[in-house]
Structure formats: C-alpha cells, structure tokens
Design the sequence.
C-alpha cells in the first residue's frame, strides 16, 4: 500500500477553499485513511498542530473559526 505523502497531508489539513483540486485531494485522503491507521494518525497529529496554531492568533482576528463575539457568547453559556 502506498502511503500519503507529507505534502498531501499538509495540503489536506491546511486548505481553505474547496476548489476542484482540493476536492480530489480530500477524496483521496479520506479514502486512504479509512484503510490506513498510520496515515490516519499522521493526519490527526498534523491537524491538531495546525488547529493549535490557528487558536493562538491575535485577538483581533477570528479565533479557532469563531468571530470574537461568537466566541464570547459561547464562553458565557
């Protein structure tokens, strides 16, 4: 079995738009990680790292995918 490349995993984890190229990559990665625990773990690890970087952005920018007001509302619940 051929494993996903580091570049494929990095592109999959970090893409921001669903253009035709990224849709093909997402289909390839998702299909592969259903059968390959090693690549699934690599995707999970890089996704966690990528998400933690996004969550450390400045307060003026959206945090972890939320606008500042949405995050404040969520925290106050």
Sequence:
């Amino acid at each position: 079995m051929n494993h996903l490349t580091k570049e494929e995993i990095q592109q999959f984890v970090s893409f921001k738009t669903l253009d035709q190229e990224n849709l093909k990559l997402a289909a390839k990665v998702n299909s592969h990680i259903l059968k390959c625990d090693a690549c699934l773990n690599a995707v999970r690890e890089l996704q966690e790292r990528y998400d933690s970087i996004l969550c450390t952005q400045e307060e003026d920018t959206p945090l972890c995918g939320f606008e500042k007001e949405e995050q404040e509302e969520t925290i106050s619940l």
In short: The mean pLDDT is 82. Helices lie at 6-14, 20-33, 37-54, 68-76.
